[in-house]
Write a structure and sequence with these properties.
Number of helices of chain A: 6
CATH architecture of chain A: Alpha-Beta Complex
Largest sheet of chain A: 7 strands, mixed
Largest interface: A-B, 28 and 28 residues
Shape of chain A: elongated
Oligomer: homodimer
Radius of gyration of chain A: 17 Å
Strand content of chain A: 25-35%
CATH topology of chain A: Maf protein
Number of strands of chain A: 7
Distance between the termini of chain A: 8 Å
Helix content of chain A: 25-40%
CATH class of chain A: Alpha Beta
Chain lengths: 189, 189
Amino acid sequence: MRNIILASGSPRRRDLLTTAGISFEVRTSDADERTELTDPAEVVQELSCRKCLDVLRQMPSGTVVLGADTIVAMDGTILGKPEDEADARNMLRRLAGRAHDVYTGVTIAEQTADGKLIRKQFAVRTAVLIGPLTEEEISAYIATGEPMDKAGAYGIQGVFSRHVEQISGDYFNVVGLPVHAVYEALKNW
Amino acid sequence: MRNIILASGSPRRRDLLTTAGISFEVRTSDADERTELTDPAEVVQELSCRKCLDVLRQMPSGTVVLGADTIVAMDGTILGKPEDEADARNMLRRLAGRAHDVYTGVTIAEQTADGKLIRKQFAVRTAVLIGPLTEEEISAYIATGEPMDKAGAYGIQGVFSRHVEQISGDYFNVVGLPVHAVYEALKNW
């Protein structure tokens, strides 16, 4: 399997790739994350593509770059990273006792030596059912600091694991990368 | 929440409880793991109960003990830990490209100061869909040594993550403990 460049500073994505035995180096991107798109699957693909191409254009030809973006979607609204603790509290109140969707978009691209751009792009959806949360449980979780850098204000792989009743889809997609789909795409690159 | 005794030597269960913020100490059990039961949900509850009560009887009253047991079930057959590499290879060939169920049984019990035994017991099922596996992929996975101490010959949280297409249910149940159900049971203990 080819070595890749991961166009993401997320420590979760690094851990997932390392665990899955996929070799990579990290180059973070400064791509603009604002978009007018509203469909969750389109948003994450668009943002993953920007991150990927932003890094790709700084690399020599023959380099395979992977960009990814993860969001939480519920009732037609997209929840990104919370702006502050009050925002995190609002998000967690909304998620409590209900199901929502987590989307991760992935773009893998390579500029070949003869100038062609090869690109694979896809989005993976996982449904997540959160248990009821008391105000005390929300406050305790916010106090850990974990919500602040995470879409939807929670990380499934941390202490919030105790509040996750069930999921349907790829678990690792919720952490930040659909590992199986990425592995298959790179295996056949 | 009460401190508990975890009647299991599994490092995965320790990690899950630690991550979920549940305080515990470990006492391993020597309970016999043979059973004539064949229904997966009954098997894991029975074995979790034996481990739990085996440790409970060595503890002072007022101690809360948690026992757990995890198995893989497919086509009416129960897959435990593989006996050797050939057994692991057979299990992985069977799991490849298909869905199976992972059951974890949990028993939580306490002997009160006035001699009463309080006990909660349940089993949680998670469906897991594995992608197609080539003989090379199976050999590479066996070479890591990971399959040998794991029911069904795989650990979802390791390099095998790349072969897991999707799950339906509690992810942590597949790792070895249904964290949300355990948290709710202990919260209301």
